[in-house]
Amino acid sequence: MKAVEVLLLDDEPIVGQRLKSGLVKMGCTVETFENPVAAMARIAQKKFDIVITDVMMAEANGIQVLEAAKKLNPEVKVIIITGYATAELAREAMEKGAYDMIAKPFKPADLRGLVVRAMQELGVQVVAPTEE
């Protein structure tokens, strides 16, 4: 069974560190990024199954990351993380193909639940996420 390839992008290093271990335990291969420009360059090099991205970042925003990922791989599941959840942002993200959106602060288990759903839609057998 091929591991699910996940790109995790958040400009706060602690977010990537906290979420990566739980995703790895679920059988995902995870690459973490803090810089959206570097993350988009990596998306252009490698096909990811799931992209998890923050929205508000200095050099590019999560909507730009979403657009770049979907342009290169229309099947990719993009999950948006935001501390600025608004109806307008949710509508824009969904119109541009986001899989789902989760508002900060959230429990790692809640994000893992979204990833499990995305994995199931990708046809991947899922290792049950462990509680923290």
- Strand elements, count: 5
Strand share of the residues? 15-25%
Classify the helix fraction into a percent range. 40-55%
Structure annotation, total helices: 5
Report the structural category.
alpha/beta
CATH class: Alpha Beta
Verbal overview:
This protein is of the alpha/beta class and 132 residues long. It has one domain (4-119): 3-Layer(aba) Sandwich (Rossmann fold), CATH 3.40.50. It is built from 5 helices and 5 strands. The protein has helices at residues 13-25, 36-45, 62-72, 87-95, 108-121; strands at 4-9, 28-33, 50-54, 77-82, 100-103. A 5-stranded parallel sheet has the order 2-1-3-4-5, sandwiched between helices. Helix 1 (13-25) crosses helix 5 and helix 2 (36-45) packs parallel to helix 3 (62-72). The longest helix is centred in the C-terminal third of the chain and has 14 residues, at 108-121. The radius of gyration is 13 Å and the shape is globular. The protein starts with a strand and ends in an 11-residue tail after the last helix.
